[in-house]
Amino acid sequence: xxxxxxxxxxxxxxxxxxxxxxxxxxxxxxxxxxxxxxxxxxxxxxxxxxxxxxxxxxxxxxxxxxxxxxxxxxxxxxxxxxxxxxxxxxxxxxxxxxxxxxxxxxxxxxxxxxxxxxxxxxxxxxxxxxxxxxxxxxxxxxxxxxxxxxxxxxxxxxxxxxxxxxxxxxxxxxxxxxxxxxxxxxxxxxxxxxxxxxxxxxxxxxxxxxxxxxxxxxxxxxxxxxxxxxxxxxxxxxxxxxxxxxxxxxxxxxxxxxxxxxxxxxxxxxxxxxxxxxxxxxxxxxxxxxxxxxxxxxxxxxxxxxxxxxxxxxxxxxxxxxxxxxxxxxxxxxxxxxxxxxxxxxxxxxxxxxxxxxxxxxxxxxxxxxxxxxxxxxxxxxxxxxxxxxxxxxxxxx
Length: 398
Hints:
mainly alpha; Na+/H+ antiporter like fold; 63% helix
């Protein structure tokens, strides 16, 4: 059973099944799908599956993503010392600018400028699927995987920032004064660390809850709550057995080493998050196939083409200017990384829901279809890997 669970996690099976089930139900019985996702629970108008998934569960998803970034910068981490992160961050910049420019060019050329509010959708990368695709294409332990994960996590954070700044609810404008709670939560987490509190759950239950409330009260997306708290979890230099980002040890191996609260946080919640992605996919990917229009293809091309051009140009230029790529990577790897980064499912669905509201609600379904179609980036990246052979051979450890 443990082997089966590990296999399901490793290949993001719950997320993929969630997408498939959502599409089947939404196209077979749209009314049933709507009732399942949006029906009020306990007669509370806003309390439904969509709220629980997007504003509560996803807190832990982005919390684990934040843990990976924090750990990668620790001594012995994949991006330590700091200079190792400069080129990936340049790629992140390109992975945002490239899709946005592509989006605006396409909406102008195709006469869809009335849908320009969706410019933020193609900036995102699906962390879980990108990690899976990178491992299958490059092989376990390849430096391109950590490069891609840093890029994906940061541009997903940018995506949530875009939601907060540019896609606020007109009926509930942002209230910056409520962000005081974020500062309070961070101060409390800092205090717990200074007192050498080793129970990770205390950081999550108290400062984490306060940070969530602050974002929610400020009318900003609360999914980022733990991003402000996780960096304060006590940590230790990264050991050789845990250098690979998103690599989870089984319980038997885990017990043979001493671990920090930062590592315990991920270990205790990773299975919950991996299987919970089924519900995220189900709640967000239920789009009818008839909802395909011009904006679908604009989103799709902006994700795939825009990411490839932006990441390759910015990181490639950085390399030429003396800002090196990670050891083991060359410029040939960049378009493949860009293609994988074009898989924009998770946060792209998030942003689609926020970008097209009110009079633009008709474009939400087609935009989500563009995000779903971007999964084809895996196939394109695999073909490109075979063509470019960046590692000297078309053979690799899958």
